[in-house]
Design goal:
This protein has about 425 residues and is an alpha/beta fold. It has 2 domains: about 1-50 and about 95-215 and about 410-430, Glycogen Phosphorylase B (Rossmann fold, 3-Layer(aba) Sandwich), CATH 3.40.50.2000; about 235-405, 3-Layer(aba) Sandwich (Rossmann fold). Helix content is about 40%, strand content about 10%. The protein is built from 13 helices and 12 strands. The chain has helices at about 5-15, 70-95, 105-115, 130-145, 170-185, 195-205, 260-265, 285-295, 310-315, 335-345, 360-365, 375-390, 410-430, and strands at about 25, 45, 125-130, 150, 190, 210, 245-250, 275-280, 300-305, 320-325, 350, 370.
């Protein structure tokens, strides 16, 4: 999980710098867990009481043709389906509070208090989403007499991704009430961009600092010969003159869709057969639907979920990396974690979305790619890359300068300074 890398990196760098770190997590012991890189005796692992079912993911059966069910059974099946959906909605609204990780709250608090013995923190930090972690942090801070800090990787009830339409009015009020109540006890907030910090401060009146995410250092992969690609690419994308485009990560209906890119490829005419787009990430139907509606369906391959190492390999071997964002001013403060993965790969970035925002400004100021939104201008840029690929056999890598100052090691020391100051202020105030 990309979001988990931020707290994991902070914990590792803090431990390296001599901090006495304890990690509380629901994840099992593996190298991708938030406690990875921390001695196991410093990690408290607490499993949730149970996992809520994933709602809204069940396939729907659509009666069709002569082989479909008879009218009466179909009506009964439809009624049962409606009742089931209503029951799940009520269950979600009433029980999954504040989110689907709510069953972790009690085990997490209990496990940490049991495991800590006489150890007492100077500061407690929780990162969200999921925001059940904020409830855990507030409870532990209160029990242990320590300040706590809320790390917002995304906004909660005032953010773009808060699913207002799926919440009844009472649930929305409950969510807003809980967030405000939690932030009354917080010592401070940290987030990933200035627009999000402004929203938190103006809405809740809490002091909010900005510490960006960063590029994760990892072992460089064995370079391939010019024009070669590994087995993780479909056969259609392995031609030496094929322009390979890739997007890794989740797509969102109505917000992050490859449709403008596929429309642009269709505008290329005969050149469209020399462009191939690969989507690697959880399959929620957005990419498949876009491909179905596209005039050039052969130009896209949907791989679905892939291991993280394969995702990185796809990024490294692409000619161009596609960053799909919401083309709306409200998305100006969003900084996807995969943006930093893309910078690590040093492949040109084609960002589709709002032209003015944190990521768009970073791409332009560092010469890391282009920010476009209309199919005609995207098609023009694809033609330029196609001409370069045909002429030189490759699209040049971005210079190392695009990464300067954006590694985790560049960002996390400021985070540690903020936490140190928070602990000192609390100690002085309670002395």
């Amino acid at each position: 999980m990309v979001g988990g890398r931020r707290p994991a990196s902070l914990a590792r760098i803090a431990a390296r710098d001599g901090w006495d770190v304890r990690v509380l997590t629901a994840t099992p012991a593996d190298r991708d867990a938030p406690g990875a890189g921390i001695p196991e005796w410093r990690v408290v692992r607490a499993a949730p009481l149970f996992q809520w079912p994933r709602l809204g993911t069940e396939p729907r059966t659509v009666p069709a043709g002569d082989g479909g069910p008879h009218p009466a059974p179909a009506r009964r099946a439809g009624l049962r389906s409606a009742v089931t959906r209503s029951a799940k909605l009520v269950g979600r609204e009433a029980l999954m509070f504040p989110d689907g990780e709510s069953t972790w709250i009690i085990p997490a608090v209990t496990a940490f208090l049991r495991a800590r013995r006489s150890w007492r923190p100077d500061v407690v930090l929780a990162t969200g989403p999921p925001f059940s972690g904020f409830v855990v942090a507030a409870a532990l801070a209160r029990r242990l007499g320590a300040p706590w800090v809320a790390d917002y990787r995304d906004l909660w009830t005032v953010g773009n991704d808060y699913r207002v339409r799926s919440r009844v009015a009472l649930r929305r009020r409950a969510d807003h009430w809980l967030e405000r109540r939690l932030l009354r006890s917080v010592a401070g907030c940290v987030t990933i961009s200035a627009p999000i910090a402004h929203t938190l401060h103006s809405t809740f009146g809490v002091g909010t600092e900005v510490v960006m995410n960063g590029i994760d250092r990892r072992a460089e992969q064995t370079p391939l010969p010019t024009g070669a690609v590994g087995a993780c690419w479909p056969t259609a994308a392995t031609g030496t003159t094929t322009l390979r485009l890739a997007h890794t990560g989740l797509l969102y209906p109505g917000k992050r869709s490859p449709a403008p890119l596929l429309d642009a490829i269709a505008l290329l005419g005969d050149d469209a057969r020399h462009v191939h787009f690969v989507q690697a990430g959880p399959d929620n139907g957005v990419a498949v639907d876009a491909a179905r509606r596209c005039a050039v369906p052969d130009a896209i391959t949907v791989l679905g979920q892939v291991p993280v190492e394969q995702s990185w390999r796809i990024q490294a071997e692409a000619d161009v990396l596609v960053l799909l964002m919401w083309n709306d001013p409200r998305d100006a403060g969003t900084v996807p974690g995969k943006f930093f993965d893309y910078l690590h790969a040093r492949r040109p970035i084609l960002m589709l979305g709002h032209r003015h925002g944190v990521v768009a400004d970073l791409i332009r100021s560092r010469g890391a790619g282009v920010v476009l939104s209309e199919p005609t201008e995207i098609a023009d840029q694809l033609r330029r890359w196609l001409a370069a690929k045909e002429r030189d056999g490759r699209i040049p890598a971005l210079p190392h300068s695009v990464q300067e100052g954006l590694f985790r090691e560049d960002q996390m020391p400021r985070y540690l300074d903020l936490l140190r100051e928070t602990g000192l202020r609390h100690r002085t105030a309670t002395a």
